[in-house]
Write a structure and sequence with these properties.
By secondary structure, the protein is α/β, with parallel strands linked by helices. Helix content is 24%, strand content 25%. Strand 20 and strand 21 form a beta hairpin.
Length: 444
């Protein structure tokens, strides 16, 4: 068998090594795939070759879902766990991936589902200690500590569980491959066999994946293409609130997020997100309230801004939870359209609660917060800003404005600033919609 090389970033395959990947241009990412020392088990799970069928002749099959009774988790998956689906979950070390998976085994055990939890990183004693803290008491949860992929597949075939959890995919390996666990070839072949097994037996499988320093799942990108769903567990390590986000989902939307709070007894779903994304004090200088859209839900968030004279030659532009380039563009809009000189000012932007978003509907509250800090003047009380800002300073409408306005009304905001170009009329006189066309109308 000829030696081949795989790019650990994009999964590109070539028979010749080079310092730079010919496909994605990354340096020092081509890794030796290794060689098979045995062909044992390679074809044991291969199905018979099917014949082509016309799409219009295919019979409709309803997708059945198993619910975990944890609304935030089910929402991210698209409504529940589908039989035979393979889910890859990634996140920073210590973020709570193993905690979430161990709690998932308890949730499914409570639903009378047999769970096989396979750990290749921790010993039985370590998992037993954590299970006591997390109160894992279901009789339907089974533990298997091994690093052998073939042994895991044998146990799945023997015990026939209703759900399988692999923690983690980088820690298991095949004895038939002359490479270490976590290498490109081990990851690719182990994932391939596990996915074939899950599809053949129609068993849902969750695989925990390590991440690189860039925050992406370690290993070749092809792993994310092989699985059905890719979830990322996000949040600051020192922040108790965590966000579960879907970046790929063949059985649901990728726009939904799940919110959890990390406690001493494990993860607890957050039923009222607005309590963590904003404070309930009076309007402060440099603070504006906005509304972001994540999937089918709207969240009211607090945008904090600080603009101060720079003590260094190059002013700082620091953002937390937002895109750095988006802030640079918005500051350029301020300078151009309001004749403000910001080249000697440090600008800091923070979204409270640890949320991260790219929703353009936060453009208006960001600029409102910056103007409030520059003018040293608080924005009107009980006000919320919803709108996208164009390069000429005009306020543009945002998608699903009605959902955002309804969320603001629910929380008692009386002054809602929206684009004058938005086709929305208030259905109640309790609130006051303030239509604005340009930035200079914010403090009018």
């Amino acid at each position: 068998m000829a030696t081949s090389f795989f790019c650990s970033d994009c999964g590109f395959e070539t028979t010749k090594w080079s310092g730079k990947c010919p496909n994605c241009g990354s340096w020092d990412t081509l890794k030796d795939s290794g060689k098979l020392s045995s062909k044992k088990g390679l074809n044991t799970l291969l199905p018979s070759h099917p014949n082509p069928e016309r799409i219009i002749d295919l019979q409709k099959v309803d997708i059945s879902r198993a619910c975990t009774n944890i609304a935030e988790f089910d929402l991210v998956l698209g409504g529940g766990i589908v039989s035979g689906m393979v889910v890859l979950i990634g996140g920073e070390p210590g973020i709570g991936k193993s905690t979430l998976m161990l709690q998932l085994s308890q949730w499914m055990g409570d639903a009378s589902k047999k769970v096989l939890y396979c750990s290749g990183e921790e010993s039985v004693e370590q998992i037993q200690h954590r299970s006591e803290r997390l109160k894992i008491v279901s009789n339907n949860v089974w533990l298997l500590c091994t690093n052998d992929t073939d042994h895991i597949i044998d146990m799945i075939n023997t015990n026939k569980p209703d759900i399988v959890i692999i923690d983690s995919i980088q820690s298991i390996s095949l004895a038939a491959l002359d490479s270490i666990p976590g290498s490109v070839n081990q990851l690719r072949e182990s994932c391939n066999r596990l996915i074939r097994n899950a599809k053949q037996m129609n068993i849902p499988m969750f695989m925990v994946g390590h991440v690189t320093k860039e925050g992406m799942v370690a290993g070749p990108k092809i792993i994310e293409h092989m699985v059905d769903t890719v979830l990322y567990f996000e949040g600051e390590l020192r922040n108790q609130y965590k966000i579960l986000r879907a970046v790929k989902n063949r059985f649901g939307s990728t726009n939904e997020i799940g919110l959890f709070e990390m406690t001493s007894n494990g993860l607890i779903q957050v039923t009222n997100p607005n309590n963590i994304f904003m404070t309930h004090e009076s309007q402060q200088i440099g603070t504006a309230i906005g509304c972001v859209l994540e999937g089918t839900r709207s969240f009211v968030v607090e945008v904090q801004s600080l603009a101060t004279a720079s003590n260094y030659g190059t002013p700082q532009r620091v953002v937390v939870g937002l895109d750095q380039k988006r802030l640079a563009m918005l500051l350029a809009v301020l300078e151009k359209n309001l004749a403000l000189y910001l080249r000697s000012s440090d600008v800091f932007i923070n979204l409270t609660g640890g949320i991260k978003t790219i929703d353009p509907g936060l453009d208006l509250p960001i600029l409102a917060a910056i103007l409030s800090s520059l003018k040293d003047q608080a924005l009107p009380e009980n006000s919320i800003f919803i709108g996208e800002v164009g390069l000429n300073g005009e306020i543009r409408p945002v998608p699903q404005l009605e959902s955002r306005v309804n969320e603001a009304m629910k929380l008692g905001y009386e002054k809602i600033y929206i684009s004058a170009f938005a086709k929305y009329k208030a259905k109640t006189k309790v609130i006051k919609l303030k239509d604005i066309k340009h930035l200079y109308s914010i403090f009018d």
